[in-house]
Please model this.
Amino acid sequence: MVVLKRLYRLSLYLILPFCLILSSGVFANERADVLKSFHGSERGELIESYDEQKFQHEVMFYMGISLLFFVFLTAGFGIAMVMKGKEVFVQHMICAGITVFLAVAHAVVGIVWFFPFK
Model:
């Protein structure tokens, strides 16, 4: 029984990962062909596509960072009103409006630019 457990552990930790590594190399060429079919055949098209996607990712990143900033700011104003009794309701509502606007804009831009079923 102990021998079977050791053999199972040996196969689980050594043999199975080794087989997976070897078999992944077999299918690498097929994956590369699939990726080539999604991109243009010319190098110029690939560079333009990469530059456009890089710009899109940067826009989404900056929108996301500002969205997180305003979420934390809105929460901070809300906590200040409740816990400390501060009069920051107007600031809280302005930040909440900006947060909702950024969230909707971020979602719409993400769906339009990165929707997987174009």
